[in-house]
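FORM 7B: Structural annotation worksheet

SECTION A. Query
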Amino acid sequence: QLQLVESGGGLVQPGGSLRLSCAASGFTLDFYHIGWFRQAPGKEREGVSCISSGGDMTEYADSVKGRFTISRDQAKNTVYLQMNSLKPEDTGVYYCAARHRSQVVVTTIFHPSEYDYWGQGTQVTVSS
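SECTION B. Predicted structure
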């Protein structure tokens, strides 16, 4: 069974940092592009960052550029999202998602419909 599990969320003060992890089981992430999404209460799920299957290409939403860094460790079958200089507006449930590298993008790389496998999410709360 293909499964993604996020971890690393929590409560942090503004300006603080967190590192989220997305671990895969039941399949290797080597053939999948991975995206990080977040959803705040009452808002739509939005794309935050994504990384190609080979790790050579990354994309970031404008709202997190310069503060977040996505990376992957093939040996650990895990993708990370390092989040620095956190702001209250970064609060939400963070999800990782996978799409096979052979899939053609129909909408945008940050549209949730482009991804087939999802984790259960991890809560990030930025508050003083």
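SECTION C. Observations
The chain has a mean pLDDT of 96. The chain has no helices and eleven strands.

SECTION D. Sign-off
Analyst initials: ____
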